[in-house]
UniProtKB/TrEMBL annotation:
Species, as recorded: Actinidia chinensis var. chinensis (Chinese soft-hair kiwi)
Name this polypeptide is given: Thaumatin-like protein
Keywords: Disulfide bond, Glycoprotein, Secreted, Signal
Record PROSITE patterns: THAUMATIN_1, THAUMATIN_2
Similarity field: Belongs to the thaumatin family.
Gene3D superfamilies: Thaumatin
Compartments, record wording: Secreted
One Pfam assignment: Thaumatin
Length: 244
C-alpha cells in the first residue's frame, strides 16, 4: 500500500499532526554565562537559566517575526511579576511581547520563501549579552552559525551607554538617520561601531543584505548566551544576588 493510501486512511487530526510537525523546529537555549540569565522568547514565554542551564522550545512550522533574547538582573515574585534591568518584557517572567532595549536578539522566521528558514542576530535594539546562534541539525547541512561575542558593553560609545548594556542609536536619538522609518537609509558611524565588532549581526534596520542567513526548513537551532564564557562582561554582574 502506498504512502498516500495509508495517509488517507488516518483520522484528520493525525494527518494534521504529521504534516504540521514535519518542519517544526527545536530551539535549545543555553546559558554559558557565569551569572543568571532570564531567557525570553516570543513565542515561548520565559525561563530563569542559572549558569550552564538550558531550555528547549518546540516552535511550529511557519512561525515568523520570532525572537529569543536574554534578560539580566531580574527579580520576580511568586506570581511571576517583577522587573529586569535589561530586556524586560512588561514586568513578567513569561513574556507575551518583545523586550525593552537594550537586548541582543536572535530573530527567525521558519519555512518561508522556498521553504527556507531566515535567521539573524540583531543589534537594532542594542546589546546586552554576547550570543551565538547556530543550526544543530539541518536537512542539507548547508548553513552556518552566526555570533556576536565582542566586548560591546565595555567599548560602547558614551552617548549609547546605559546600565547593563549598550543602546542602539535609534533608541537614543530617535531620528530618521538612525531609525530608517521614513525611507531608505545607510550606515552611520554608530552602526559601523557595531558592525566592525560583530560582522554577522544587523547593525541598523536596513542592513539586510549582509546580515540575514538561511537554512532549509526542518533545521533545529541552538542559541547560546556567552558562548565564549564572556570574559569581558562587566564585573558588576559577577557575584550578584538573584531572586526568582
Amino acid at each position: 500500500m502506498g504512502y498516500l493510501s495509508m495517509a488517507f486512511g488516518l483520522p484528520l487530526f493525525l494527518l494534521w499532526s504529521l504534516f504540521s510537525s514535519a518542519h517544526a523546529a527545536t530551539f535549545e537555549i543555553r546559558n554559558n554565562c557565569p551569572y543568571t540569565v532570564w531567557a525570553a522568547a516570543s513565542p515561548g514565554g520565559g525561563r530563569r537559566l542559572n549558569s550552564k542551564q538550558q531550555w528547549t522550545l518546540n516552535v511550529a512550522a511557519g512561525t515568523k517575526m520570532a525572537r529569543i533574547w536574554g534578560r539580566t538582573k531580574c527579580n520576580f515574585d511568586g506570581s511571576g511579576r517583577g522587573h529586569c534591568e535589561t530586556g524586560d518584557c512588561g514586568g513578567v517572567l513569561q513574556c507575551k511581547g518583545w523586550g525593552v532595549p537594550p537586548n541582543t536578539l536572535a530573530e527567525y522566521a521558519l519555512n518561508q520563501f522556498g521553504n527556507l528558514d531566515f535567521f539573524d542576530i540583531s543589534l537594532v535594539d542594542g546589546f546586552n549579552i554576547p550570543m551565538d546562534f547556530r543550526p544543530t541539525r539541518s536537512p542539507s547541512g548547508k548553513c552556518r552559525p552566526i555570533s556576536c561575542t565582542a566586548d560591546i558593553n565595555g567599548q560602547c560609545p558614551n552617548p549609547l551607554r546605559t546600565r547593563g548594556g549598550c543602546h542602539n542609536p535609534c533608541t537614543v536619538f530617535k531620528t530618521q538617520e538612525y531609525c530608517c522609518t521614513q525611507g531608505p537609509c545607510g550606515p552611520t558611524n554608530y552602526s559601523r561601531f557595531f558592525k566592525e565588532r560583530c560582522r554577522d549581526a544587523y547593525s541598523y534596520p536596513q542592513d539586510d543584505p549582509t546580515s540575514t542567513f538561511t537554512c532549509p526548513g526542518g533545521t533545529n537551532y541552538r542559541v547560546t548566551f556567552c558562548p565564549n564564557g564572556s570574559p569581558h562582561f562587566p564585573l558588576e554582574m559577577y557575584g550578584e544576588s538573584d531572586a526568582e
